[in-house]
Write a structure and sequence with these properties.
This protein has a single domain (9-54, 72-135), classed as 2,3-Dihydroxybiphenyl 1,2-Dioxygenase, domain 1. The strands form 2 sheets. A 4-stranded mixed beta sheet has the order 1-4-3-2, covered by helices on one side. The protein has a 4-stranded mixed beta sheet with strand order 5-8-7-6, covered by helices on one side. A hairpin with a 2-residue loop joins strand 3 (39-44) and strand 4 (47-53). The radius of gyration is 16 Å and the shape is globular. 15% of the residues lie in helices and 46% in strands. It has helices at 15-25, 80-89, and strands spanning 9-12, 29-34, 39-44, 47-53, 72-76, 94-105, 108-118, 124-135. It is an alpha/beta fold.
């Protein structure tokens, strides 16, 4: 297995609940897990993410819901509509609905169809599907 140069590890309040959200609802793949440590290494397309049930090991302060305030994690997705359908089927509300966005990078605008959702602990996840590029005016 290839390990990305940067792999966020999220503390979660309930690993079973987080597994259902990430794996069953969003389609993340379990690369490996350590059940005794309540730890999972997940992948989604080319992205990787670790989740571990809170144990105090990484605590820099008290965790309060929603976790991860001030950060969002972007995942490139092949089909955001399929993800939204799965979230809706599992009664998971979107934080922001699907919309088309264009972001400037130098002299180019890069387009994505994207939405945001919070995981069970409140971490903000953004899923973005590339829709093309065009010259910036």
């Amino acid at each position: 297995m290839h390990f990305n140069a940067l792999v966020p590890e999220l503390s979660v309040s309930n690993l079973t609940r987080s597994r259902a959200f990430y794996v069953d609802t969003l389609g993340f793949k379990v690369e490996y897990e350590r059940p005794a440590n309540k730890f999972m290494y997940l992948s989604f397309q080319d992205a990787q993410l670790m989740i571990e049930e809170t144990n105090g090991h990484w605590a820099t302060g008290e965790l309060e819901h929603p976790y991860g305030r001030g950060i969002n994690f972007q995942f490139h997705a092949d089909d955001v509509n399929a993800l939204v359908k799965s979230l809706e089927a599992n009664d998971v509300p979107l934080f922001r609905p699907v919309k088309e966005s264009w972001y400037r990078g130098g002299d180019t605008l890069y387009g994505v169809k994207e939405f945001l959702v919070q995981d069970p602990d409140g971490y903000l996840l953004r899923f973005a599907q590339e829709i093309g590029s065009k010259p910036a005016n």
